Structure to design on (394 residues):
């Protein structure tokens, strides 16, 4: 990781992480090895946001990095073991995921914070973020109304709010806790334009043709019926409106209940929802090529931009 | 029952398959950190690959021991597992 000299925020995050977890150096060496400059630029912005959020957190950056380790060792690896042994995700219903994960505030908090850090440290997450910032957002027509479903840590809403030509920015979530946490995160990150955060269920929405751009980032794999979610997005999008989807395949986690086994399956799902794919990018887990990842069923982050037909 | 030599051969084949590297050579003192690509995710794939090839399943304590083992230790753990299954 000698090349991080021009990336002070990334360097600060990596240095802290390795101070607390030196055994992770080998993974980070691989994960940081071949990122293009344009991806690093977004990773640096993301790392800066993570540092800002950590500075306002009672547990500080140490807590964030401990949560990242918790994510890797306690959340992901046990599920990976199950996935390898049994060839599928451990849970398949929302109620089971709620009972085991969503209803446990402490676990959820650490899980979400760990994921926030992973957007810098995990190569596929960093590349997906860069695709959103460098490819999707600049291609949106001026005056677009932009909505994110389940904005979580708020990073993608932050980057959308940085695009002055977007007319409005909104986020929907079904959890009051998540809505308030996203609002707090956006304020901490310094978003200075209105972002309309609402407690709303995509499936219960009666609105039609109300936005031009929808983001579903790491949402579909948490649903029992992702096709129904895509059809709901189709309904709320105006004709010609766009959707940016980030969905992992072969990516076990305790709350991942819908298994997609290949990038092609992900694309077929999006097309079945009534969309024409206009851009796609597949980012395999660090250290694997896409073909290698396919051969061993390793995780691939699938980024798909599509237009409502 | 497999001999120690056969266990080494099986383990080497699994590691090469998971890491997609035909040049991996395992010695008793080899650790995961000595082998490019043998990270925590690959480690799980190697463990499960060994389980599937030898029709065994490691318990929690064995998995913990394997986590910090060198190849020689790992072979001994596998040998004990095969002998006791």
């Amino acid at each position: 990781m000698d090349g991080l000299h021009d990336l002070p925020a990334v360097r600060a995050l990596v240095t802290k992480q390795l101070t607390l977890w030196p055994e992770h150096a080998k993974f980070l060496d691989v994960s940081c090895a071949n990122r293009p400059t344009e991806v690093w630029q977004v990773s640096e912005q993301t790392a800066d946001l993570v540092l800002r959020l950590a500075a306002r957190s009672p547990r500080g950056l140490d807590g964030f990095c401990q949560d990242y380790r918790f994510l890797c060792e306690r959340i992901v690896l046990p599920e990976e073991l199950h996935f390898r042994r049994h060839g599928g995700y451990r849970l398949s219903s929302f109620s089971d995921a709620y009972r085991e994960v969503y209803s446990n505030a402490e676990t959820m908090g650490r899980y979400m914070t760990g994921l926030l850090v992973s957007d810098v440290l995990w190569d596929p997450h960093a590349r997906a973020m860069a695709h959103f910032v460098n490819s999707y957002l600049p291609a949106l027509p001026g005056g677009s109304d932009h909505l994110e479903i389940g904005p979580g840590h708020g990073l993608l809403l932050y980057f959308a709010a940085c695009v002055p030509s977007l007319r409005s920015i909104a986020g929907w979530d079904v959890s009051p806790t998540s809505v308030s946490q996203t609002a707090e995160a956006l304020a901490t990150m310094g978003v200075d334009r209105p972002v309309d955060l609402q407690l709303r269920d995509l499936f219960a929405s009666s609105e039609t043709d109300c936005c031009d751009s929808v983001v579903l980032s790491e949402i579909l794999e948490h649903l029992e019926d992702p096709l129904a979610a895509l059809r709901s997005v189709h309904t709320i999008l105006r004709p010609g409106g766009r959707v940016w989807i980030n969905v992992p395949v072969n990516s076990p986690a305790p709350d991942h209940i819908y298994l997609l086994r290949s990038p092609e399956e992900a694309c077929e799902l999006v097309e079945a929802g009534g969309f024409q794919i206009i851009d796609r990018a597949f980012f395999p887990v660090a250290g694997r090529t896409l073909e290698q990842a396919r051969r061993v069923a390793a995780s691939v982050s699938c980024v798909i931009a599509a237009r409502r037909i | 029952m497999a001999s120690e030599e056969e266990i080494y051969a099986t383990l080497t084949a699994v590691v090469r398959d998971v890491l997609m590297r035909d040049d991996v050579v395992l010695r008793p003192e080899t650790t995961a950190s000595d082998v490019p690509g043998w990270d925590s995710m690959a480690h799980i794939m190697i463990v499960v690959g060994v389980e599937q090839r030898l029709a065994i399943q490691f318990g929690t304590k064995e998995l913990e021991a394997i986590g910090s083992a060198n190849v020689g230790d790992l072979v001994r753990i596998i040998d004990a597992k095969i002998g006791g299954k």
Chain B touches chain A at residues 18, 20, 33, 37, 39-41, 44-45, 47-48, 51, 57, 63 (CB under 8 Å). The mean pLDDT of chain B is 91. Chain B has four helices and no strands. The CA atoms of residues 16 and 24 of chain B lie 6 Å apart.
